[in-house]
Write a structure and sequence with these properties.
single chain; 67 residues; mainly beta; three-stranded antiparallel β-sheet; elongated
């Protein structure tokens, strides 16, 4: 389940909420009970865990396709 980060405008607290993607736009209450919150745009990093090495070289796709 995705995790979304919110910031409370009243107290400045930043908190996370786990919810489905369908409920991503729903408002969230601050853990301190405030209702004036805003959803933050978060950047995530995804790393591979497979055994194959990443392609090396230049180009837009690491040179594997010859572009």
């Amino acid at each position: 389940m995705p995790r979304y980060e919110f910031r409370c405008r009243a107290c400045g607290d930043t908190f996370e909420v786990n919810r489905s993607m369908a409920a991503a736009g729903d408002p969230a209450n601050c853990p301190h009970g405030h209702t004036d919150t805003v959803k933050l745009l978060s950047a995530i990093a995804v790393t591979g865990r497979g055994g194959a090495p990443a392609p090396t070289g230049g180009g837009c796709c690491g040179g594997a396709c010859g572009c």
